[in-house]
């Protein structure tokens, strides 16, 4: 068996503590060797829980460790690309949270740094991994829904509760200062569409509203994305509401409908002749993080490109920036 890859984690917030680190600890092919967070106490608590030998508040100290093979970067997206580039220059492979940047110029600098250093970047579009989305893509590519297709997607997250959870409110407010929910949660939606469609985007119409005047960006966005092959996607993304509607993930065509229920953990194809269902028995989110880490390790060991990598990260960001521009044009 190959020696375990030694991984460090930069940014020890909720997504690292609840998802990335448990995935690392459950994988026999990697070792959690270092933790870094600007809040040193938070990093120390995790280090004590998992017996991590190196803990620091200075990411440069982590990157100077010659024994580390790779890092997982779980920082805000306006910070992530700069840490990604420094990590690559230090000879570390990188799995970074999405979006890989908040502007295309910086994202392309990350890609150029990846090419120049020879190290790898995998972008954390975690929820594209696993049999459910792959089954949905297979149904689409086999023509079982016909064409043209209508994609109906909705993501609602980040409950507005400034009094009950001030830390969460302040964190999401700061995030919105760097773009609307379409830049952040929209990164997943854009990657889903990139993964499922075989067509280029022809045009984007987008609208957004602030449900409270003090918000630094729109907190509800509605987008209509037109594809060159005649397909269309309707995308809703909402943050900072006290209650949410159910999110949708449906693909409708002249031959039937495919439903991706992320909460009940199944995809289902319905036509006039049959109903076909593929259900996931293990926890969907945990399985996605596990598969994502396995693919990252395989790319490093086999020296193959990471997928999704910087090309997919840039494609996702390009679409969300089109949405952002559409919102800006229609909001003013």
TrEMBL record:
Residues 134-257 form the GFO/IDH/MocA-like oxidoreductase domain. The keyword Oxidoreductase applies. The keyword Protein biosynthesis does not apply. SUPFAM superfamilies: Glyceraldehyde-3-phosphate dehydrogenase-like, C-terminal domain, NAD(P)-binding Rossmann-fold domains. This is Oxidoreductase. Pfam families: GFO_IDH_MocA, GFO_IDH_MocA_C3. Keywords: Oxidoreductase. Transmembrane segments: none annotated. Residues 5-125 form the Gfo/Idh/MocA-like oxidoreductase N-terminal domain. One of its GO terms (molecular function) is nucleotide binding. It comes from Paenibacillus nasutitermitis. InterPro entries: Gfo/Idh/MocA-like_OxRdtase_N, Gfo/Idh/MocA_oxidrdct_glycsds, GFO_IDH_MocA-like_dom, NAD(P)-bd_dom_sf.
